Amino acid sequence: MRLPKILLVFLIFCTSLTYAQSELITQLNGKWKFTQYSPDIIKLTFTPDNYTTNENISDAVILKPMAKVISTAIKNNSAIVKNKKLTVNITPAKTDGYYGFDISLANDEKIYGGGERALPLNRRGYKFNLYNSPHYGYGEGAENLNYSVPFFTSSNGYGIFFDNASKGYADIGKTNADIFQAGFVSGELNVYLIFGNDNKEILANYYKLTGSQPLPPRWAMGNLMSRFGYTSQKEANEIVAKMRAENIPLDAIIFDLFWFGDSIQNTLGNLAWVNKTKWPDPKKMISDFKKKNINTILITEPFIVKSSLNYNNTIKYQAVDSSGKNPFMLTNFYFGKGGLLDIYRTDAQKWFWNKHKEQMKIGVEGWWGDLGEPETHPSDMYHNLKDLGYKRLFKADEVHNIYGHTWTKMLFTQFAKEYPTKRLFSLNRSGFAGSQRYGIFPWTGDVSRSWSGLRAQLPVILGMSMSGVPYVHSDAGGFAGGEGDNELYVRWLQFATFTPIFRPHGTALGDVDKNAFSFPSEAALIEEPYRRHAQVTIGLRYNLLPYNYTLAYKQAKKGEPLIAPLYYHFPKDTAAVNVSDEFMWGENILVVPVLQKGEQTKNIYLPAGKWYSLTDTSVLYGDKWIKRKITLDNIPLFVKEGSFIPMWLRVIPMITSTADYNIDKDSSLRIVYYPSEKKSSGFLYNDDGVTKNAGSEIINFEGITIGNKVTIKMNTNNKLLYKNGQKKTLLVGIPYSVKCTFDLTNTCPMIKLNNKPIDTRDIVKTNYGFNPSTTFNYIKVRFDGTPLKVEIEIQP
Q1: In this structure, how many other beta carbons lie within 10 angstroms of the beta carbon of residue 673?
Q2: pTM flag (> 0.85)
Q3: End-to-end CA distance of the chain
Q4: Of the candidates 344, 419, 438, 357, the residue with the CA atom closest to the CA atom of residue 386
């Protein structure tokens, strides 16, 4: 029997009691309750006297409580939580109508998380809302954005999660430097303490509590063509044709609100292809795209404006006013007067789902949920939660933060019933803790098309990733306002290549709004030489598909983030914790985006160890700052020693979409090992990319370098795939050119496969990584499921 890593001890003022599952202690001004979820997770709940709105309407937590509490206590109205390394003091608090907690902070303690904030990653010293809010055209310093998550991590070895969906705030040492205060207008007052030895353990424990994200369809890792917006079938077809003509890979096209209307305003709620002139045959259009392996994604919104086709027949499904009977009429809503679907009601969900289902019948593959904060949500609007087991009406502020979450859950649940084996793709810019397990792919909102907007994306995306939302991404290229800055466009795409979803987006309205500045988001429409640079970086996105898809598997199975700040992977590096303009893509690739216009050199911090430049063969040593010259061709990228980077380097025929990826039938998969004197390992995950619980394979790699001899080993977890003599042809290499001295048998004694010199016909000379000017030798291996060993002798 393994003893728990952390033993929680609650000090009690005069006595200590242990109860089955939870402990209830009466206070003069309220009641404490403690519930244990694991040796590392405990929930503290406080109910003030005469507090009547203590319902917990969230479904964020899926972990079941333990059979008993290890030990629980209070002291002088405060809970004092201790483990072997630290003490956390928690005191009930009430401020200006908000109920919550004060949590004591140590002098050097750093606090991370809280969802989307264009703030420094260490949020100590800031106060912001826990209230999902749109912010059009934002840049650096925006505090309150579309997706709040009341989950935080401390540099002292614990996480804090407030499972409360009502309007709230977090004051992290701004009002009082020594206090983290959180307050909420309603709902159960609780706080989960989540312990761990480092950020990796804390985040993994949080995922155990709230769930991790299912595997996406593989095509979601490709290039998604998107703009505001495609206004006709003819325009969409022409741009897709241009992308194909320019040999730019493409996996999806995303349609904004013009698919159901001819104008921006007064059309929300139509949810049908109303203009037969501009959209003469959407079913054929979608089918034709599908034949090209291009998936169609449509936008929907939960608002039904009065001038739409569906207003009258959805009155009964809309949120109401204080009378509880009349639909609430939005009179100051940008898109027109109208109502909001009461998404918490099963009948409203059924109506909304049927509208989605109608379009999926003609071939739509994915969904883009917009305005889901909800964007306009007056505090005197009321919602009916009777289908969730509650009798009273709830004010908007009480349920606001789980509106988008409930919408995403509805889509995920209904899709699973209708298509039980298929994976869902669901963009939604708003959600709550736990939304990740419903397959949400949120974006960072209506960011400005500016360098400030680009710089804001790092803290927003990294902060969200550390808040337990793994697939956040931005409108690559920027969205709101701006000018036609081609350099900004290229640099944004280079950054977005190393984010979970790659979706160039922007505003190009043409005749719909001639006053709005239009700048195309599609690389095929960008002028040269910027088009070529954009094409190269999109190609790089596809080159990394096997690496990226393996990251998606790691997230689903192990709760590992795809994208993370340096402090996550290098917790003992005191310099890394202060680096905010670099990040890790997976655990192996360090990314340094270019964030300033005209920048020609970058000061770069490399953590300790040996690093390889991904774009050439240079080797650098870390634990120091270095300076690198940069050009518009690429951004600085480095690979940690010992890494295995699987790459898809198909050249002929050109890659057109992720549908071309098939490692069972061609030799386009290349495994590059970055030598290290320390033994290392890695793996490649592969399945059909579409089906839930599909038959899959993990190919494991091990590597070590001793002197000038590199040894690489391979094996598989699924030998059944090879039972009928099947083989995979892989190219295995290292970032060096191996010079062979050929003998009379046409073999190369410097390279051995399973202890035998390799045939010279199995040495493939090709480009290194992503730099066509640098070549080295790959070794062609035919993997049949049995363990395999490659030995390479590097010439001094």
Answers
A1: 26
A2: yes
A3: 52
A4: 344
